[in-house]
Amino acid sequence: MYSNRRSPRSSKSNFQTAVVQVLSDELGLHVEEEVLTEDGLFSIDAAVTWNTRRLAVEVDGPTHFTNNMPYQLLGSSVAKQRCLQARGWVVLSVPYFTWNSLAGSNNPHVQQQQQQANRKVHRSTDDSRTSESGVPL
Prior knowledge:
The protein has helices at 14-26, 75-86, 96-102, 108-124, and strands at residues 31-36, 43-50, 53-60, 90-95.
C-alpha cells in the first residue's frame, strides 16, 4: 500500500483538480491526492488502487516539460517516474498539452481520443513498464 500521510508542501493546481474530477466522477475511481510513498520520498499527485495495482497519476504541467516542441519530459520528472515504478507503482503521466487538446471538445475525433485515453488507463495497470509520456523505460 502507500502512506496515509499527505505531502505538507504540495499545492493543487486547477489542472490537477480537473484530472482528479474526471478520474473520480467519470471513471468512478477512488482517488487520493498528494499521497506520499511509503518511504516518504515522493509525493504522488493522484493515487488510485485498481484491481490490486497501485496507479500513480502524475499531472504534468508546463514546468515538467521542455519549452519548445516537441515537448520532452524533463529529467527530474523522468527520474521520479522511474523511482515510483521501482517502488511498484504503475505511472500514468497526464501532460498538460494533451489534456488541453482534449478538454471540453464536442468534436467526435477528440471524443474518440478521450475514449482511447480511458482505455490506456485501463491497460496501463496490466503493464507497469508503460509510461504514458512516451519515456523509454
